[in-house]
Amino acid sequence: MARVVVDVMPKPEILDPQGQVVARALPRLGFSGVTEVRQGKHFELEVDDSVDDETLAKIAEGLLANPVIEQWTVRRVEA
Amino acid sequence: MARVVVDVMPKPEILDPQGQVVARALPRLGFSGVTEVRQGKHFELEVDDSVDDETLAKIAEGLLANPVIEQWTVRRVEA
């Protein structure tokens, strides 16, 4: 068994309304110094040792991210 | 300037319907060996050097996560 983290983020050229809302709210709430916020998705998968990196890339690209507007990273972490 | 990553996940005792939908879809799509999927949020913040870890914790706990049902982690990463 292994734990795998997939992070999915809007591509840099894609507007991120959710992140912009958070960024604009921060000064109103008394937090200064945060110049940008971008919001994406974070997945944690438990996978058998039979699942190789190529399969993980297919899962990330095909099921977890929308590759037209999102980029993704896969990494294995200590369980 | 520093880049900060905040990951927000449903607490272990909280059901995660979105993650369960992904987990159930995988075998149908030909991917075996993934035993659990949990879905959360991933934030990337650009912050001034004046923003300390205590402030980042307040932002994560108060604005990015719902601490009743979610747990969060903050880490600084290389820009």
Automatic annotation (TrEMBL), chains A, B:
It is found in: Cytoplasm. It is an enzyme of class 6 (ligase). It holds the Pfam family PurS. Part of the phosphoribosylformylglycinamidine synthase complex involved in the purines biosynthetic pathway. Catalyzes the ATP-dependent conversion of formylglycinamide ribonucleotide (FGAR) and glutamine to yield formylglycinamidine ribonucleotide (FGAM) and glutamate. The FGAM synthase complex is composed of three subunits. PurQ produces an ammonia molecule by converting glutamine to glutamate. PurL transfers the ammonia molecule to FGAR to form FGAM in an ATP-dependent manner. Belongs to the PurS family. Part of the FGAM synthase complex composed of 1 PurL, 1 PurQ and 2 PurS subunits. This is Phosphoribosylformylglycinamidine synthase subunit PurS. It comes from Amycolatopsis samaneae. The gene is purS.
